[in-house]
Design brief:
The chain is mostly helical. It is built from nine helices and no strands.
């Protein structure tokens, strides 16, 4: 009978030496590949509606195997949601900085950052605001999150930290929705400079804040928005 070899347990750190760095390199490559696919998807979905693009179309235009997209995102919907979420993170980060600035300057910085992002990332901005799955509640939730983040930043600059009343929230939401439409038109027909566009949106924000004050005196318009300032 052949003599059985005793199982040899690997010495801790011997058989798996280098496995940690190798796994880390693999994770980095995987993250880079996923980011590359998202960047491609931003452009694809900005120019073509969600329903008009099949997975075969996406794979062909991205020059990858369809299975690779399924591997990273599981479905076309998962791919689209990843694109929207990635674009949203960039937009919110760009618009909501300047925490160290005075309140009025921070509001101006937020609007300028928003416009700067839209100007330099037009495909991603269109994906966030107007492209994709109109009936998809999860996509709507992502977009609503962008609006909520911008409203919170503007509200803190105008009223200070804390919750705002329904009238103030609705007034700022109406302003943000108008900003989205105006910005889409601006990047399609850039007849105004970014500085002029920013100044215009700041002034329309002042009008919204004064309207809020008229309906709810508990939320007075800040001095920069007052006509008598």
């Amino acid at each position: 009978m052949p003599q059985q070899r005793a199982a040899v347990s690997p010495t801790p750190g011997s058989a798996r030496a280098g496995e940690g760095p190798a796994r880390a390199r693999g994770s980095e490559r995987s993250a880079a590949r996923r980011a590359e696919l998202i960047a491609i998807g931003r452009k694809l979905f900005a120019d073509t509606s969600y329903d008009a693009l099949s997975m075969d179309d996406i794979a062909r235009q991205a020059d990858v195997a369809k299975g690779l997209i399924y591997y990273y995102f599981r479905s076309k919907r998962g791919y689209y949601l990843a694109i929207v979420q990635d674009s949203v993170a960039d937009l919110v980060s760009s618009a909501a900085g300047g925490l160290e600035l005075p309140a009025a300057d921070r509001v101006h910085r937020t609007i300028d950052g928003y416009l700067r992002y839209a100007e330099h990332h037009q495909a991603a901005y269109r994906t966030i605001v107007s492209g994709g799955v109109g009936f998809d509640a999860e996509v709507h939730a992502v977009r609503d999150g962008v609006r909520a983040a911008i409203i919170a930043t503007i509200a803190e600059g105008a009223y200070g930290p804390g919750d705002i009343a329904p009238v103030a929230r609705m007034g700022l939401l109406a302003w943000v929705c108008s900003v989205e439409g105006a910005t889409l038109d601006w990047i399609a027909r850039p007849e105004l400079s970014r500085d002029t566009m920013c100044a215009l949106l700041v002034k329309t924000l002042g009008g919204a804040l004064r309207a809020v004050e008229e309906l709810d005196p508990a939320h007075p318009a800040p001095p920069p928005a007052r006509r008598d300032a």
